[in-house]
UniProtKB/TrEMBL annotation:
Residues 27-81, 92-166 form the Nitroreductase domain. It comes from the Bacteria. Residues 167-199 are annotated as: Disordered. Residues 169-188 have a biased composition (Basic and acidic residues). This is Nitroreductase family protein. Residues 190-199 have a biased composition (Polar residues). Keywords: Flavoprotein, FMN, Oxidoreductase. Belongs to the nitroreductase family. It comes from Saccharopolyspora oryzae. Its cofactor is FMN.
Length: 199
């Protein structure tokens, strides 16, 4: 594992080979997209993003989640009014929720369930990117009014709101911490390529 590697060598929009991005290119070139054109998102793209989202792994395969795909412009603007983390005006907002009703006996599930929702959202964002769209996971929003706007039942707790649209501009590259600083081989105690095993 080489230290000192910085990411961001590829632009956000990599050249798709045969119309599709390779999975590694897709992962490496995804960026948080916060500015969108007015263009809407078609049903087929939504279907593909949702398919990718629902393919995410979940703890004990509980799938303790619920999602609302909002494309009604009036509703999008209302949600945005309670979500300072959403910068531009997107044509679509995904509201990703943890479903406490799916795991009532497991005390750890609220935390673990949030992880599962986050994994699904990452799939959704990667699929969006592969389709030439862009989005951003947003935790800065007021759950109570969003819950009321969408008529969410008590067992659904919004975890993230996710604006998605056609990028209005090339998104800024985000920096990554130095790989050697955050990834070690075998144990945290050694940075060299030794086994790290106790003597
Ligand atoms: C859990 C979570 C919450 C986030 N909340 C916000 C937010 O409220 N507003 C925002 O503009 N970006 C938000 N982001 C996006 C991050 O700022 C962004 O992913 C980070 O700066 C790295 O940039 P990149 O996604 O382009 O690599 C959030 C990301 C995560 C994972």
């Amino acid at each position: 594992m080489s230290a000192g590697h910085m990411s961001d060598v590829l632009p956000h929009r990599a050249i798709p080979s045969q119309g599709r991005l390779d999975v590694f290119e897709t992962i490496r070139t995804r960026r948080a997209v916060r500015a969108y054109t007015a263009e809407t998102i078609d049903d087929e793209s939504v279907d593909r993003m949702v398919d990718a989202m629902l393919a995410a792994p979940t703890a004990s395969n509980k799938q303790a989640w619920g999602f609302v795909v909002v494309r009604n412009p009036v509703l999008v603007r209302r949600i945005r009014a309670f979500a300072p983390g959403i910068i531009g005006v997107p044509p679509l907002i995904l509201v990703a929720c943890f479903d406490s009703g799916r795991a009532p006996d497991d005390a750890r599930m609220p935390d673990v369930g949030v992880l599962c929702v986050a994994m699904a959202v990452e799939n959704f964002l990667l699929a969006a990117h592969a389709l030439g769209l862009g989005g951003c996971p947003v935790s800065s929003f007021l759950a109570k009014p969003v819950r009321a706007l969408l008529h969410l039942p008590d067992h659904l707790a919004p975890v993230l709101v996710v604006p998605v649209g056609h990028p209005a501009q090339e998104p800024r590259r985000s920096q990554r911490r130095n790989r050697g600083e955050v990834v070690r081989d075998e144990t945290w105690g050694r940075t060299a390529s030794g086994t790290g095993a106790p003597a």
